[in-house]
Amino acid sequence: MEIKKIVLRRMEMTLKAPFQTSFGTERKREFIVVEVYGGNNNVGYGECVVTSKPLYNEETVKTSWHIMEDFLIPILYSKEKIQHPDEVSQLFKPIRRNNMSKSALEGAIWDLYAKENNMSLAAALGGTKKQIHVGVSIGIQESLDDLLRVVEEFINEGYKRIKIKIKPGKDVEMIKGVRQRFPDVPIMVDANSAYTIQDIDVFKALDELNLMMIEQPLAHDDIVDHAKLQSQIKTPVCLDESIHSLEDARKAVELGSCKIINMKIGRVGGLTEAKKIHDYCMSKGIPLWCGGMLESGIGRAHNIAITTLPNFVLPGDTSSSSRYWYEDIVVPEVKAKNGIIDVPTVPGIGYEPDESLMDKYTLEKKEFER
Ligand code: OSB
Ligand code: MG
Asked: Which superfamily does CATH assign the domain made up of 123-342 to?
């Protein structure tokens, strides 16, 4: 592969409804789109899933732009040619962390590679599923009534499981209320690191509610207390924020810190690392599902592709574009019907960014010629 030009776009799209987690409320989504230009007019697209503020991880839109412009793009341009996208994570290795920034460029190169080889991104990754099952992630609601209304709406749309955000004070009573109203629906909760091991009573109470899993209950950088918690409850602990690499996954699994892992391509630094974690978890009997970062259609397309690998056995967060956006920037939009998305078979990510919609939501654009 020959990279002729790279374009970064800082984008902003307004969410249909504010999304509240234990660390804050998002009303607008600011992110970066990467375009990588190769031969034969092929363009690969990647989405940098960072947010404006460093609340989920340490990266922000500004730091990502800086890391890509001043370090990662020069590294890519120092190589005459790239034979395979797996080389990219090796090239980026001297740069510590900044995983979402690395992943955005690597993802665009994976898309370009798939297009140049006339195969879907899913097939290029070795995925085989023709359809994927998805659920929905619901932000913290003001009242139980509000929550029940939103949950019912998504159950009626056919989503395969309902994930509900929790934080101290908005946890056991709310989830108990949902469980009473919907006794058989697959429900899970996500705390985004809002608790400590001192809060064991909250988890013992949640443990009685037949939940699929409890996602990232404790600190974002912890695996030790998560292991203590997992040994005291039967509900599986799922790690999100704590896992940035295959090494992190191995250590968490060996310690017994979780029984399930939420895969986010950006959090682990790209598709190549995601595949390695996938293969390791499959060999250890640790099921995966694909998490979300309120992506546009470009990030959503990457999530769909990785979910076609066999160990993604639980429904992910990749719900329809229309659940987040008034209009998405890709054609067609991502659509889940009855909680099922048909995996595109055309070359690359399978959803085409629309030039004029892309421009409409672009705040800033910069071209990097080789
Ligand atoms: O923890 O999974 C998370 C959104 C932003 C930051 C962190 C998380 C989330 C979500 C949303 O849960 C998932 C989605 O994209 O629908
Ligand atoms: Mg999470």
From this structure: Enolase-like C-terminal domain (3.20.20.120)
